[in-house]
Design a protein that fits this description.
It is globular and about 50 Å long. Helix content is about 60%, strand content about 5%. It holds the Pfam family DUF6624.
Length: about 220
């Protein structure tokens, strides 16, 4: 009998090609989000990059790097939809490893035609990298605080209308609608707002951190 390639298997059969890896990725995502929620409750998440959160992100990213060497990008064809989404979240949170995030983006783009890659994940990862590198974002997925602490979309590549059109092709709501959603969430999650001086110091620390890990050089 002719041996089928990964692309020729029915998706429901392929999902369990790597069940152990799938379960591990899902568990790592669960742990990441569990730590995040606990740090929010303790009021420790939003003043700089919390060391405990960074440790979780780094551990997950290093393990995902090993998995990619073993099976390639863990797309739906390898591990199922839930675990593949977990892999994307791990990359999205690997902000201390610029080279890994950028190589993962390149790998996802490369495999778009041969594997099931969620285009929304590509948009989010591309925008996140642009934010850390001080480049305009294409899909309006990244938001930052202004000097008064109000949430606003990070710099856009093109007009709001152009960005919203790109979002529409991916099934996303408008930047304006997303801003309303995130502002409501931020009001619930964040506690006392920092002063202007505290925000300035946080920005300096953020820029120093970006230089340290390699996002920017100056």
């Amino acid at each position: 009998m002719e041996k089928l390639t990964a692309q020729q298997y029915p998706l429901n059969l392929i999902q369990m090609l790597y069940p152990d890896i799938a379960n591990e990725l899902i568990e790592r995502r669960r742990h990441d989000l569990e730590v995040r929620e606990r740090l929010i409750t303790e009021g420790k998440l939003f003043r700089g990059y919390n060391p405990e959160m960074e440790a979780v992100h780094l551990d997950n990213a290093r393990r995902l790097q090993e998995i990619i060497v073993q099976i390639g990008w863990p797309a739906q064809e390898q591990v199922g939809e839930e675990a593949s989404e977990a892999a994307w979240l791990i990359v999205q949170h690997a902000i201390s490893l610029p080279s890994f995030m950028k190589s993962a983006l390149a790998l996802l783009k490369e495999q778009e035609t041969g594997r099931t890659i969620n285009p929304v994940n590509l948009a989010f990862l591309s925008d996140r990298i642009a934010l850390f590198e001080n480049r305009p974002q294409s899909y309006g997925t990244q938001f930052v605080d202004d000097e008064q602490g109000r949430l606003m979309p990070y710099q856009l590549d093109g007009s709001m209308g152009q960005v919203n059109q790109r979002r529409q092709t991916l099934g996303l709501n408008t930047v304006e609608e997303r801003l309303v959603e995130l502002t409501a969430r931020m009001n619930v999650e964040q506690g006392e707002q920092p002063t202007i001086r505290e925000r300035q110091l946080e920005q300096q620390e953020y820029d120093a951190w970006r230089r340290k890990v390699g996002w920017i050089s100056t």
